[in-house]
From TrEMBL:
GO terms for MF: transmembrane transporter activity
Membrane topology annotation: Multi-pass membrane protein
Name of this protein: TRAP-type C4-dicarboxylate transport system, small permease component
GO BP, one annotated term: C4-dicarboxylate transport
Subcellular location per the Swiss-Prot or TrEMBL entry: Cell inner membrane
Amino acid sequence: MKAVKVLDRILEIATSVAFTGLIAVVCIQIMSRYLPYTAVWTEELSRYLFIYAIAFAAPLGIRRQEFIHVDLIFSLFSDETKKKYEGVIYGGVALFSAVVLIHSWSFIQLGIGFSSTTLAVDMSLFYASIGIMFFFLTIYSLLHMIDCIQANRQGSDNR
């Protein structure tokens, strides 16, 4: 689990860097409205920083169980059934994420040789955010599913 904590920390730092960069770029964009120089690159960069902030933060949301779920349905279940239900849900998320991850490679290849309008950066760098996000979503969904299975086993052992 030490590797997971290191991975958590890397994603936290990457999210913070992307979000801090986003704030700085938006501040530059706002200030440039009152200056004779217009920073046209800020809109495009802010969009890409936002995408990467989400790509790094979404797996942490799974890790910390911070995504919303419908409590109305969830509260009807016993504790054991909740864990089974949660395990199935995260298994589905892992399966979906793995499928998108596999297909993200062809999407990244589409961006090779094309550059962004104002930043002149290869578009595959921005398309890679899809692969990065779904890679970590797959890992964290599988880890959470394993946690649910272990919690069910421990619960059934205590009976």
